[in-house]
Amino acid sequence: MKLKTILSILAVSVAAINAEADMADYNVVPLPLSVEVDGSQKPFVLGSDTKILTEKKLDREGDFLRSYISFLPKAGVKGTVELKTGLKSDNPEAYRITVTPKRITVEGASDAGVFYGVQTLRKSLPADITEAVMMPAGTVSDSPRFAYRGAHLDVVRHFFDADEVKTFIDMLALHNINKFHWHLTDDQGWRIEIKKYPRLTEVGSKRPGTLIGRYGAGTEIDSIPVEGFYTQDQIRDIIAYAAEHHIEIIPEIDLPSHMMAALASYSELGCTGGPYEVLCTWAGYKDVLCPGKDMTMEFIGDVLSEVMELFPSKFIHIGGDECPKDRWKECPDCQARIAELGIKATDEASAETQLQGYVTRYAADVARRHGKSVIGWDEILECEDIPQDAVVMSWRGIDGAVKGTVRGHRVIQTPNDYLYFDYYQSDNMDVEPLAIGGYVPVERVYSFEPFSEGMTDAQKQLVMGPQANLWTEYVPTFSHLQYMELPRMAALAEVQWTAPEKKNYHDFKCRMPRLIARYEHEGYNYARHIFDTDVNFRPDREAGVLAMSASVYPGTTVRYTLDGKQPSVSSAAYSEPLRLDSDCVIAAAAFSPDGERGTVTTDTLRVSAPTFGDITLACEPYSPFAFGGADALVDGLVGGDNFRSGRWVGFLGDPCDATVTFRSPASVSRVSFKTCIVWPEGALEFRKAEVYGSADGNNFEHLATLDNSAQDPAQGNGAYLHEINFDTVTLKALRVVITPCEPSGIWKRILFVDEIQAQ
Predict the structure, then answer these.
(1) Four-residue CA torsion sign, 41, 47, 51, 55
(2) Angle, alpha carbons 325-329-330 (nearest 5°)
(3) Which residue out of 258, 317, 409, 529 is catalytically annotated?
(4) Which fold has domain 532-602?
């Protein structure tokens, strides 16, 4: 959506939410626990001349507040804002704001609580005003749901300088995020000065170029050098800056894999001795640290110790993800270490996998000597014997968190299918900047529940909180970084902070204009998709129609066409659900009051015998990609190139075995379905499809088979239509069995299917 359109909508939206432009609104993002406005009292008048009183230890919070209101005109009346600690609460980050006509009191259970109270005051103000602000009398009582509220930033694939990192910290503070997971090392660069190993930055911080386009689509490397690292003095300065914002920085040294930058610097640390290079692409490596060598283990201990001496955090992240074991199987040093330790393979884990457990335990021992605990990606659970104090960061869905809590580990929820901000925000990938793939819109972020279904109370106690991650393979600039983060970070903030019973996505969207205006005021780049038309479909099987509804953002009008043409100001205006029962292409968009059109959303409806039929599945879909479940396979809505759009259904290991009973008998001679291939993400092709038909809905006969075994399961990315033809038969029911390819490697292999049709 164009900036002019956004600003027009913002103006209308803010006016609709606040009758007066100079009136504060405490219903901010994230939404506080309790907001009680006392309309019987006059408001407090806040201006640049308002007196601010603080306890000595709250001078920094007072300075923040002064900077936030410095742009306001003078109030012209006497009034005082008092910041103090002493609030009685079990939650150390709790605060209470009390507003009377003469005084605003922000009382926190700690310094941090006061800080968050100040942030709420800041966000309650209109971003750009010409008069002093009226602060309604009343009380705001608030505390966060989770103590751990994290955001991750990869500065390796692309480097961001110290000032940009500080701006990122400002963004976190605006959203009440208190943990900054800083990914500092990887195959593509080493970004932190280690004095004992100077070649890590002399050699490892530089690469000659970067892969052009998305991984898997080609191998061409550009000639633009990427380099940069943070000196230890810069690190200390950034840590201090974060601490002023009550943010704890958790550094990550990713090991024993993702170490090509270190191996290029010190080749003796690898199993083969090299030569090694800092990678210019994103995967395809086999070389990792060699735990069979004493010098390698000494290197791990030295690096972690030096890092931990810099960072006051209670934690250090040691990675542990995506570690191929090829070299370890061939390495005499690693095999000798396995023998020395008496490591034995189990049904669940090879000896080499157990060797990684040895590395994890070693790193945890080093951390423990420094009074800290390690965090690792969920792959560390693949070894049975890891330290009990190790924290599991679950990224491959929620399975790692569930498994971790069952084994008694603290966990952090960061599932890629909900909280990876390097994924696309729109299913219209053609108009978006290049991203790794996937689809995580604001609404999907907002929908995430950190307590996985079925968790016991004891397991829930081990969930520290949620975190969103931004990997920067395809994020070369800081402006692009902001675009990927905002406004998804706002949705994350409510997942982390707001009580679940108070969460409501429509209400969240209605509160966003004030925060968006704050983004504008701060000069942040942000994605505009939240203002786009949100079109939803619901099948009505009894009537044999698809009911289409569209959300209307405050201040906008949704207009649509049914022939795929771009809607205009003269197109039909949406007012109530449409009932569709035939092939069409629905195009819809929001229009601002001055007639500017936002992003057009397009959906294709194809009606055939299975559409609106009753469908059952012999095997349940893979839960992270169940989306609309079985119904999505026959709802008439055709999936595009993005398997996370909600139109597709994913199956892990099991076949898509679907039986559809038609609303009435139909003559059928062709069955078709689609698959979606994104092979770098494990979305692969099928091996075989079988079609069975039933004239009575009970007894089935085999009709045809489509053998796809000769097809490369990792053929070019995209959506593929498959057709199976046979002699015409009259059917009451249809069964389609689509068998996935065999799993291989470290990634899960998922079969994505959509829209089973019969003509």
Answers:
(1) positive
(2) 120
(3) 258
(4) Immunoglobulin-like (2.60.40)
What token pair was written down for 235? Answer: 């690190």
Q: How far apart are CA 191 and CA 167, in angstroms?
A: 18
| Residue-wise pLDDT tens digits, 294-343 | 999 999 999 999 999 999 999 999 999 999 999 999 999 999 999 999 99
Whole-angstrom distance, CA of residue 57 vs CA of residue 99:
22
717 pLDDT band, cuts 50/70/90, is confident
pLDDT, average across residues 160-180 = 98
Q: Which amino acid is at 87?
A: L
Backbone angles phi, psi at 183, to 5 degrees: -85, 105
Element at 545 (helix H, strand E):
strand 545-551
Indicate which residue of 321, 322, 432, 641 is catalytic.
Answer: 322
* pLDDT at residue number 17: 41
CATH of domain 614-758: 2.60.120.260
Give the tokens for residue 542. 């009894």
> Going by DSSP bridges, is the β-strand pair 138-142/95-99 parallel, antiparallel, or unpaired?
antiparallel
pLDDT for residue 602? 87
Label the pairing between strands 51-54 and 80-85: parallel
Residue 686 structure tokens: 């099928």
Q: Catalytic: 152? A: no
Which residues, in sequence order, are CB contacts of 91 under 8 Å at separation 6+?
A: 109, 113, 143, 144
- 613 vs 29: CA distance, rounded Å: 42
Q: Cα–Cα distances in Å, from 294 out to 98, 162, 190, 659?
A: 61, 35, 22, 59
- Residue 478 has a pLDDT of 98
Task: Give the span between the Cα atoms of 736 and 661, in whole angstroms.
Answer: 12
Q: Please choose, from the candidates 733, 735, 658, 655, the residue with its C-alpha nearest in 3D space to the C-alpha of residue 688.
A: 655
Helices 162-174 and 111-124: crossing angle in degrees, nearest 10, is 80
Residue 405 CA to residue 389 CA, distance in Å, equals 12
Q: Which residues contact 210 (CB under 8 A, 6 or more apart)?
A: 221, 222, 224, 226, 280, 476
CB proximity list for 567: less than 8 A, separation 6 or greater: 559, 560, 561, 587, 588, 589, 597, 600
Q: Which CATH class is domain 150-497?
A: alpha beta
Do 3-142 and 614-758 share a fold?
no
Q: Say whether 226 sits in a helix, a strand or coil.
A: strand
Report the percentage of the chain scoring pLDDT > 90. Answer: 80
| pLDDT tens by residue, 534-554 | 788 888 888 888 888 887 777
Residue 503: pLDDT band with limits 50, 70, 90: very high
- Tell me the average pLDDT across 607-616: 93
Per-residue pLDDT, averaged over 424-430, amounts to 83
Instruction: Convert the pLDDT of each residue in 218-277 to its tens digit.
Output: 789 999 999 999 999 999 999 999 999 999 999 999 999 999 999 999 999 999 999 999
User: Which residue of the set 25, 154, 186, 596 is catalytic?
Assistant: 186
Task: Answer yes or no: are the C-beta atoms of 629 and 664 closer than 8 Å.
Answer: no
Q: Which two tokens stand for residue 139?
A: 């009380």
Taking domain 3-142, whether its CATH number is 3.30.379.10 is answered by yes
Minimum mean pLDDT among 180-194, 455-469, 675-689: which range? 675-689
Domain ranges of the chain: 3-142, 150-497, 532-602, 614-758
Structure tokens at 219: 């191998």
134 φψ region: left (φ > 0), alpha (ψ -120 to 50), beta (else):
beta
In the residue annotation, 258 being an active-site residue is answered as yes
Helix (H, G, I), strand (E, B) or coil at 537: strand
Among residues 627, 636, 714, which one has the least CA distance to residue 675? 714
Query: 352-378: per-residue pLDDT in tens?
Result: 999 999 999 999 999 999 999 999 999
Q: What is the pLDDT of residues 319-329, one digit of tens each?
A: 999 999 999 99
What is the model's pTM?
Answer: 0.89
* Residue 322: active-site member: yes
* Rounded distance between C-alpha atoms, residue 752 and residue 345, angstroms: 34
For β-strands 545-551 and 578-580, DSSP reports them as antiparallel
